[in-house]
Write a structure and sequence with these properties.
about 290 residues, mainly alpha, three-stranded antiparallel beta sheet, two-stranded antiparallel ribbon
Length: about 290
């Protein structure tokens, strides 16, 4: 579970796919019918710009980049595990279904691949990034709501009780509790700052932290695996992957889409949607 990971809602909107927008009725009542044209106009007013952006960029990006069902399912699983029992209600509160959320994940992955293709990676940049980069670390944690409970858990650990057993008993992180609190490996900048600092301060496998306060509550952290930082040459592939991930910012994604927009010769036929791509029409297209 990445503690900073939040639900992707790129375009949780109703897709405008009403074809020719005819006068055919989509709803009939004694008081009168709701036609396809009326529905299209209503949806266009509420969601038009967001929907047409996603539909258009998806078509453009799918011609250049490939996202497999396996990739989408893997991302979906991460969110499902993170949100645990509240996942379905979280989707519902964002007007999303499993299918529409997977559509959004696919679109997000396409944008990420376009962004990566637009990132200039040089040894000079990687060597500079390497100075502050650290290898991924693997820890387990027990998350509780208050400091008193955290101290109680720490005391039990000090008295020899097993971390995994206490994680199952106490941890409010339902996505990891049954697995002894084990988290996915993570690197700098991926977790809550206080959590990350405490985790990296642990030195040896099995070391346990004092209670750590974060925006999520109080954590007890146990080190599972910590890889020593090697030379730049030995760690270059890991450094490159981490650097690219660090560049997946909204600013760089927008720059990449501006470049794709410019190359795609887009013509908007509906005058009501003429400003739908206004965020992508300036001259700034190169990602540093």
């Amino acid at each position: 579970m990445k503690l900073k990971q939040t639900l992707i809602v790129l375009a949780a909107t109703t897709t405008l796919v009403l074809g020719g927008c005819s006068s055919s009725a989509v709803v009939k009542t004694d008081a009168g019918n709701v036609t396809e044209s009326e529905l299209y106009e209503a949806l266009k007013t509420s969601y038009g710009s967001d929907a047409v952006q996603q539909l258009t960029f998806e078509k453009i990006l799918e011609k250049k980049y490939s996202v497999s069902d396996k990739e989408v399912s893997a991302e979906y699983k991460k969110y499902a595990e993170q949100y645990g029992d509240s996942f379905e209600s979280t989707l519902a509160s964002n007007n999303l279904t499993e299918e529409s959320f997977k559509d959004n994940i696919k679109y997000n992955l396409l944008v990420q691949k376009a962004t990566e293709a637009n990132i200039k990676v040089t040894d000079k940049k990687l060597k500079e990034y390497y100075k502050t980069w650290e290898p991924d670390i693997t820890v387990s944690h027990i998350l509780v709501d208050d400091e008193a409970t955290a101290k109680e858990v720490k005391e039990k650990l000090d008295n020899g009780e097993k971390f995994a057993d206490l994680a199952k008993e106490y941890s409010t992180d339902t996505s990891t509790a049954e697995n002894g609190g084990l988290l996915d490996p993570f690197g700098p900048g991926e977790m809550d700052e206080a959590f990350e600092k405490a985790a990296y301060a642990l030195e040896n496998k099995g070391d346990v932290s004092e209670p750590v306060k974060s925006s999520y509550g109080y954590h007890i952290i146990q080190l599972e695996e910590k890889t020593e930082k090697k030379s730049f040459k030995e760690d270059k592939s890991k450094v490159k992957a981490a650097y690219i991930e660090s560049q997946m910012t909204s600013e760089n994604m927008t720059k990449a889409l501006k470049k794709e927009y410019k190359a795609a010769n887009i013509k908007i036929k509906d005058s009501d949607l003429k400003d739908a791509f206004s965020d992508y029409t300036d001259s700034s297209t190169a990602t540093e």
